Amino acid sequence: MKFSLFSASAMALTVGLLAANPASAQVVTNAAQAESGTYDVEPSHTQVGFSVLHFGFTNYTGVFSNVTGTLKLDTKNPADSKLSVTIPVDSVQTTSAKLDGELKSDQWFDAAKFPKATFDSTSVRLTGHNDAIVTGNLTLHGVTKPETLKVHFIGAGVNPLDKKYTSGFEATTTIKRSDFGVKMYVPYVGDDVHLRIAGAFERQG
Q1: What is the pLDDT of residues 8-17, one digit of tens each?
Q2: Domains in the chain, number
Q3: Domain range enclosing 43
Q4: Which residues are within 8 A (CB) of 141 and not within 5 positions of it... i.e. 6 or more apart?
Q5: What was the pLDDT predicted at 76?
Q6: Looking at residue 25, what is its pLDDT?
Q7: CATH number of residue 112's parent domain
Q8: Backbone phi and psi for residue 7, each to the nearest 5 degrees, phi listed first
């Protein structure tokens, strides 16, 4: 009952805010209509999800959080857009606290020695009105390799809660963890790591 009352109160608050300022709830879903500019990652709503095949039985998932970084978004000349993000490796989280600790250890990501993973774009190529291929350099576990993201624009507009102009994207890719020296239990635990990234960015200035 407490959860239900809390949820109802939160919903009422959100509805009230939107009613008080309906313009703030307007979201554009055409990337060309999003505002160009320099954006910072909004870490509270940015997630890097991963999935690996576990002993052939299940696709086991986890997530990295507390992402930081910047996006230079140029909607008139998308090829001039730039993305740079940093992911703290020790933010890794699954449904098992024991596994979380193992993933941070030197047998896996070695978060103490390699505390950050980074991605810096080198090219952006539109493949549709709301879709692009973003190529860049991924650094993980002390190894840097080129990787490609399939990026889809979700929407942009003023966040009705904090009044900041926000643009959101979803990106997917698959990398081989052995390419980055993370080889524990390959091939029993899959070498292919499927990434699904929810990226929220707030425009600065």
Answers
A1: 444 444 444 4
A2: 1
A3: 29-203
A4: 109, 110, 114, 117, 180, 181, 182
A5: 95
A6: 58
A7: 2.40.128.110
A8: -65, -40
Closest CA to 151 of 119, 179, 180: 119
Give yes or no for residue 24 having a pLDDT over 70: no
Per the domain annotation, does 20 fall within a domain?
A: no
Please check whether residue 196 lies inside any domain of the structure. Answer: yes
In whole angstroms, give the CA distance from residue 72 to residue 187. 39
> 42 phi and psi, to 5 degrees?
-95, 100
Residue 154 lies in a domain: yes
| Predicted TM-score of the model (pTM) | 0.86
- Confirm whether 146 is domain-assigned: yes
